[in-house]
């Protein structure tokens, strides 16, 4: 893009203000929606419908005293939230809000920068943002913060792979890594398995497995419930931000909500048509105006954010081993198999081989292979039940929970003796026991 510097500056300022206001709205929106789910009112006192409550909470964090513990690494302790906040804002540089418009006589996209590898930039920026969480845990010199930072890094590695693989099929179908090009590719007619589609070719339906994997991965990537293990208050106090307060805490709070909107914007751009209007509204003349693109885009992103809130209000937190098994044993293999299938069909389609009986033969072989994999696989032998070994939980000086196959020793229920009856002297206010 060859925008003049003043237009780039206008886009940066507008994008920064929009993200701040959107975050304030999402804080209010989440509290109100969860309140409705749990038969509560949520914020209603300050401002119309309680809209000023989120603004008041943000102002409180900004003016609150900022403590820095004495034993922390002060340089990394201050640098960590800056990295997290910067990465959260930077990711929006390649997100398209609308098509080509004219601003003060200059034709431009409603997008800060349209890069030929825009999706790779998104993945790279979101990966860099994890340094803000890991360094926070390391620099805080606290066991709870360190465990929270390590959990964040393990969580990012586990779900970033599945997320990246789920996007490969989008690249194969659109033939580009430019976010603007991917959105425009969903506007046009597309050939799918040899057939022409006349409706909008949004990728979420044609690539449903990749879409489901991405939606699950984006919840794990943002540390949101039920995957909020890095900051589980029942285990780690507040995780990697335990030692933070004031403005630094506000940056992490802001980064969490911006990241939630970021992954929702990526899902909207790559799978749900981005700034394109909903069907059948796209058939109405005038509703496909590029200036209306930000409205359609915001509505779609807000629907994904509603999904985040819905999951938080309904599902309990996962156990950590369940969470890691889901990423490594389910999402990554499904993504690999789906990428192989899409690449095979795409290659055969480009060569003109997916026509007539060959198309049905290939689909039949794929379905048969999936059925064999699902139902005819060897069942693991179940070992005979054995008596669990008794665990001495205090053998190492610190109590540990039993592992599979272990059991705690049985303790007899000893009834404590009843307290002796109080004497007349004991019952007086000044008596001695």
UniProtKB/TrEMBL annotation:
GO biological process: aerobic respiration
Catalytic activity from the UniProt record: a quinone + NADH + 5 H(+)(in) = a quinol + NAD(+) + 4 H(+)(out)
Residues annotated as transmembrane: 6-29, 75-95, 115-140, 161-182, 202-220, 257-279, 291-311, 323-345, 357-377
Family: Belongs to the complex I subunit 1 family.
Keywords: Cell membrane, Membrane, NAD, Quinone, Translocase, Transmembrane, Transmembrane helix, Ubiquinone
One Gene Ontology cellular component: plasma membrane
A Pfam family per the record: NADHdh
Binding partners and assembly: NDH-1 is composed of 14 different subunits. Subunits NuoA, H, J, K, L, M, N constitute the membrane sector of the complex.
Record membrane topology: Multi-pass membrane protein
The enzyme's E.C. designation: 7.1.1.-
Protein name per its UniProtKB record: NADH-quinone oxidoreductase subunit H
Keyword presence, Transmembrane helix: yes
Gene Ontology molecular function: NADH dehydrogenase activity; oxidoreductase activity, acting on NAD(P)H, quinone or similar compound as acceptor; quinone binding
Main location (coarse class): membrane
Keyword Phosphoprotein set for record: no
Subcellular location: Cell membrane; Membrane
Reported function: NDH-1 shuttles electrons from NADH, via FMN and iron-sulfur (Fe-S) centers, to quinones in the respiratory chain. The immediate electron acceptor for the enzyme in this species is believed to be ubiquinone. Couples the redox reaction to proton translocation (for every two electrons transferred, four hydrogen ions are translocated across the cytoplasmic membrane), and thus conserves the redox energy in a proton gradient. This subunit may bind ubiquinone.
């Amino acid at each position: 893009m060859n925008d003049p510097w003043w237009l780039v500056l206008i886009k940066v300022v507008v994008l920064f203000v929009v993200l701040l206001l959107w975050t304030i709205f999402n804080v209010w929106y989440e509290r109100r929606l969860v309140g409705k789910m749990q038969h509560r009112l949520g914020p209603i006192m300050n401002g119309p419908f309680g809209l000023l409550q989120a603004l008041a909470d943000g102002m409180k964090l900004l003016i609150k005293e900022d403590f820095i513990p004495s034993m922390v690494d002060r340089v990394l302790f201050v640098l960590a939230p800056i990295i997290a906040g910067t990465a959260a804002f930077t990711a929006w540089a390649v997100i398209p809000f609308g098509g080509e418009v004219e601003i003060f006589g200059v034709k431009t996209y409603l997008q800060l920068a349209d890069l030929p590898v825009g999706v790779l930039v998104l993945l790279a920026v979101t990966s860099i943002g994890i340094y803000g969480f890991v360094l926070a845990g390391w620099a805080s010199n606290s066991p709870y913060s360190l465990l929270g930072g390590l959990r964040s890094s393990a969580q990012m590695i586990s779900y970033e792979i599945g997320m990246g693989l789920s996007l490969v099929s989008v690249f194969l179908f659109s033939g580009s890594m430019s976010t603007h090009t991917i959105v425009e590719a969903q506007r046009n007619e597309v050939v799918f398995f040899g057939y022409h589609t006349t409706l909008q070719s949004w990728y979420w339906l044609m690539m449903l497995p990749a879409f489901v994997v991405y939606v699950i991965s984006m919840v794990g990537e943002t540390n949101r419930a039920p995957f909020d293990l890095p900051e589980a208050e029942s285990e780690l106090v507040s995780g990697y931000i335990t030692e933070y307060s004031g403005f630094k805490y506000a940056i992490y709070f802001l980064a969490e909500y911006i990241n939630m909107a970021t992954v929702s914007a990526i899902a909207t751009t790559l799978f749900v048509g981005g700034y394109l209007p909903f069907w059948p509204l796209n058939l109405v003349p005038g509703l496909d105006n590029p200036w209306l693109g930000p409205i359609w885009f915001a509505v779609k992103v807000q629907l994904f954010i509603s999904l985040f809130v819905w999951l938080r209000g309904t599902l309990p937190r996962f156990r950590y081993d369940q969470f890691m098994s889901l990423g490594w044993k389910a999402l990554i293999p499904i993504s690999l198999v789906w990428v192989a299938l899409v690449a095979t069909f795409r290659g055969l389609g480009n060569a003109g081989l997916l026509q007539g009986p060959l198309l049905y033969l290939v689909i039949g072989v794929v379905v048969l292979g999936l059925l064999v994999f699902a139902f005819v696989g060897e069942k693991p032998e179940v070992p005979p039940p054995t008596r669990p070994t008794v665990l001495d939980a205090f053998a190492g000086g610190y109590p540990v929970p039993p592992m599979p196959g272990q059991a705690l020793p049985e303790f007899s229920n000893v009834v404590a003796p009843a307290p002796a009856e109080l004497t007349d002297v004991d019952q007086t206010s000044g008596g001695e026991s």
